[in-house]
Amino acid sequence: MNDINIAQIIKASDSKILKGLPNSAIKIIAIIFKQNDLNRLFNDNSKYSGVNFPPKVVEYLNINLEIKGKENLPNNGKCFFVANHPFGFLDGIILAAIVGEKYGNVKIIGNDYLNHIESLSPIITDVNVFGGNNRQYIIELEKLYISDTPIVSFPAGLVSRIRKRKIQDVEWKKSFIKKAIENQRDIVPVKFYGRNSILFYTIFFVRKIFRINASVELSLLPREMFKKRNKTIKVRIGKPISYKTFDKTLTHEKWAQDVRNQVYKLIY
Length: 268
Known about the structure:
- With 268 residues, the chain is of the alpha/beta class.
- It has a single domain (48-265), classed as Glycerol-3-phosphate (1)-acyltransferase.
- The protein contains 11 helices and 9 strands.
- The strands form 2 sheets. The protein has a 7-stranded mixed β-sheet, sandwiched between helices. Strands 6-7 form a two-stranded antiparallel ribbon.
């Protein structure tokens, strides 16, 4: 498989700031981003791809998953499996492993950077969170919604940060409610228990103080993933919420926050 090359990704980006970085800075970013560790992980598991890849990442990192509520996974996988987003890459990997094991198939709605991971690309439906999506992409996304394929989604769209003195998601985007109704997809709420390192939140806090818009802390997400090596991660799966629940008593936006609240109320 092709190795991740931070220098090439930066050169191909739309950011003028990133493209203007000197080579010395790019090398430092590659170290912070754990480029070599990531490539070792991918190369050691290169014979696995798609739905078979996430369980191998969990195994490679020797993560002990403690999952409660597996009996709540419905027989019909045509659902949105929505979760809070405390870790970053690892949330998607773990949830894809859980859903893929149950149904033998899964698609993750994630940002376009995940497509740089060749082994994941067969199960990634990417969203360019920094720009518009072309018409062909929207058509393919609608086909996915109509299909019977289980969909993993993180409606916050961002990794949890410190907000209101708690580590939590921002308000969830409402699109999954609309698509659940339109395509008769029930919603399965999932909660991850845990957090990233103090360093991750400190960098976020500092950049907010100095009004730095660039999400510098995101470069630490691979590091955060490797810090979970040999750790136990707890996951709670809630009871499915019927798409028929989302009537006109609330707006789609308020229904989205209602589901978010239900996720955070899940007790392990």
